[in-house]
Write a structure and sequence with these properties.
The chain has 6 helices and 6 strands. The protein is of the alpha+beta class. It is elongated and about 45 Å long.
């Protein structure tokens, strides 16, 4: 499990009130890192302390709509977004379990979606675009 996925999983499953506790949990999960590195990941993932505990805050709709989506035949969809939004976006797309999407790979501002079989490329691209645009016209 990647560090970002581990952080997101821990804050979903537990009530974490401080970075020291999160660092300790991550260490036990096999992710040794420093507090400044954890702070950068928390910021990048859109995690904030709300009512005394860490929670993921969804980016505002306008921020999520700042993207370009490009189908790349035979089996790849590429999404370009704002810096820092690619990994939370990939996690959200993986959680939606879009039919035909095998998985995602995210950098800082780019998400790659692997699609199988190639015949589903347009359908996956359309489903992702609907999700990112906030439309539900399925």
């Amino acid at each position: 499990m990647t560090l970002d996925a581990a952080i997101l999983k821990l804050i979903e499953e537990r009530e974490i009130t401080g970075q020291a506790a999160l660092l300790d949990l991550l260490k036990h999960a096999g992710h040794a890192l420093t507090q400044p590195t954890l702070s950068r990941h928390i910021k990048k993932l859109g995690i904030q302390k709300i009512t005394g505990r860490y929670q993921r805050v969804e980016p505002a709709a306008a921020e999520m709509q700042s993207f370009t989506l490009t189908p790349v035949p035979p089996n790849l969809v590429v999404i370009r977004t704002r810096p820092g939004y690619a990994q939370p976006l990939a996690v959200m797309l993986d959680q939606k379990q879009i039919a035909g999407a095998v998985g995602t790979l995210a950098g800082d501002d780019t998400v790659f979606i692997a699609v199988t079989p190639a015949a589903h490329l347009k359908a996956v691209a359309a489903a992702v675009e609907r999700l990112l645009s906030g439309r539900n016209d399925e």
